[in-house]
Amino acid sequence: MENVLLSVSEFVAATNQTLEYAYPVVHVEGEIAEFKISQNQWVHFKIKDEVAVVSCFMTMFQMRVPLEDGMKVVVTASPKLDGRWGKFSLIVRAVRPVGEGSIKKGFELLKAKLEKEGLFAYERKRPLPRMPKKIAVITSTESAAYADFIKIINKRWGGLDVDVAHTQVQGAPAADQMIRAIHYFNSLEALPEVLVIIRGGGSPDDLAAFNDEPLARAIAESRIPTLVGVGHEVNHTLADMISDVRAATPTDAAQLLVPDRHEIIRSSKAQVHAVGFLLTQAIDTYSRQTKENLEAAFGRIQERLDDAFDRLGILRVATSQLNPEHVLRRGYALLRGDQTVGSLLQIETVKHIISAEVQDVRQK
Amino acid sequence: MSDKSNPSVQEKLTHLSELVGWFQGASFTLEDALDKFKQAEALAEEIENDLTKLKNDIKVVKKRFDSETP
């Protein structure tokens, strides 16, 4: 090309062609400087190191994590010479914070943004059904976390229809794949009752996909209640913070999702035992009351009988007083015969029967 | 979903709770108690059988999520 005369346009076109051929996609790590957003649509910034700086351009749509000056990032971009302005730029396809400080910064910025929109509010949280019948799981089916999750739900519960969407859970494509899976399950005619998203532990960089803004929003917008368990107890991601129910780990997600069948069986038996106890108690109460009623009835009958016997005793005493034998014993005599002079009388005392003749009869 | 002739474990558990509630409630009568107790016993046994037998049906969906294509 040494002796070829080119117009500016031709030079720019040739340069871009060369760049496109030699560097279709580059990954460049550097620190953000002069970050600005124009018309709420276009994002301009520079990335730099100790000795060099390069301009970057992207759309708001491509910015998955809030950025600001000083953050260390890796941009995935195509280099391009802008013929109109004569400016060399990286046309950014994706940008992700790197290094603990920048990842944390990106996380905090996005957390603050979503929090301001009320997406973490307690009032938004929907409860999960206690015993779901149909659930959806988004995870990498090749992961140990998935194997553990399945092992635990099989141990704890049965009769569950589980549809699993296999996606990457780490790296640049992971967030978009999980978003597509969320949309897929939300578009089903018969919606699953719970949407579970799980991933095992990893470094902050490994878990970065779960701090992606579009993924967080897809979880927030899911028509299906969400249960997210990512990493270990100490890991907090925006995906799990925005979900309806946060599980500390994938294992914890399985435990939150379904009850323990052994516990339910124990509880059912305990309830029947309690009912049996109530029944026995009721029978005892009824028996005691019946016994008390019978005793009261017998008592009343006994009282009536005692009254009757008392009255009988009195009558017997009174009757015995009228017995002539008792009168004779008191010294009286019974006189039989006509009370005329010359008649014979029979006199009965307690010990003797005496015959006597009437010698005189006078008026008293 | 379950129909009336084939209630789910959850429905059986709800029924069991109702029976337990009946024993503690004002409608309790000794005449009906033995029958209700037998029902509760049978339900607990059914729940145990169901929960012991039931297996989960796990399917990986065929759709791929690595691109926008359906």
From TrEMBL, chain A:
<keyword id="KW-0963">Cytoplasm</keyword>
<protein>
    <recommendedName>
        <fullName>Exodeoxyribonuclease 7 large subunit</fullName>
        <ecNumber>3.1.11.6</ecNumber>
    </recommendedName>
</protein>
<dbReference type="Pfam" id="PF13742">
    <property type="entry name" value="tRNA_anti_2"/>
</dbReference>
<feature type="domain" description="Exonuclease VII large subunit C-terminal">
    <location>
        <begin position="119"/>
        <end position="305"/>
    </location>
</feature>
<comment type="subunit">
    <text>Heterooligomer composed of large and small subunits.</text>
</comment>
<keyword id="KW-0378">Hydrolase</keyword>
<dbReference type="GO" id="GO:0003676">
    <property type="term" value="F:nucleic acid binding"/>
</dbReference>
<dbReference type="GO" id="GO:0009318">
    <property type="term" value="C:exodeoxyribonuclease VII complex"/>
</dbReference>
<dbReference type="InterPro" id="IPR020579">
    <property type="entry name" value="Exonuc_VII_lsu_C"/>
</dbReference>
<feature type="domain" description="OB-fold nucleic acid binding">
    <location>
        <begin position="6"/>
        <end position="95"/>
    </location>
</feature>
<comment type="function">
    <text>Bidirectionally degrades single-stranded DNA into large acid-insoluble oligonucleotides, which are then degraded further into small acid-soluble oligonucleotides.</text>
</comment>
<dbReference type="Pfam" id="PF02601">
    <property type="entry name" value="Exonuc_VII_L"/>
</dbReference>
<keyword id="KW-0540">Nuclease</keyword>
<dbReference type="GO" id="GO:0005737">
    <property type="term" value="C:cytoplasm"/>
</dbReference>
<dbReference type="GO" id="GO:0008855">
    <property type="term" value="F:exodeoxyribonuclease VII activity"/>
</dbReference>
<dbReference type="GO" id="GO:0006308">
    <property type="term" value="P:DNA catabolic process"/>
</dbReference>
<keyword id="KW-0269">Exonuclease</keyword>
<comment type="similarity">
    <text>Belongs to the XseA family.</text>
</comment>
<dbReference type="InterPro" id="IPR025824">
    <property type="entry name" value="OB-fold_nuc-bd_dom"/>
</dbReference>
<dbReference type="InterPro" id="IPR003753">
    <property type="entry name" value="Exonuc_VII_L"/>
</dbReference>
UniProtKB/TrEMBL annotation, chain B:
<keyword id="KW-0175">Coiled coil</keyword>
<feature type="coiled-coil region">
    <location>
        <begin position="30"/>
        <end position="64"/>
    </location>
</feature>
<protein>
    <submittedName>
        <fullName>Uncharacterized protein</fullName>
    </submittedName>
</protein>
<dbReference type="InterPro" id="IPR037004">
    <property type="entry name" value="Exonuc_VII_ssu_sf"/>
</dbReference>
<dbReference type="GO" id="GO:0006308">
    <property type="term" value="P:DNA catabolic process"/>
</dbReference>
<dbReference type="GO" id="GO:0009318">
    <property type="term" value="C:exodeoxyribonuclease VII complex"/>
</dbReference>
<dbReference type="GO" id="GO:0008855">
    <property type="term" value="F:exodeoxyribonuclease VII activity"/>
</dbReference>
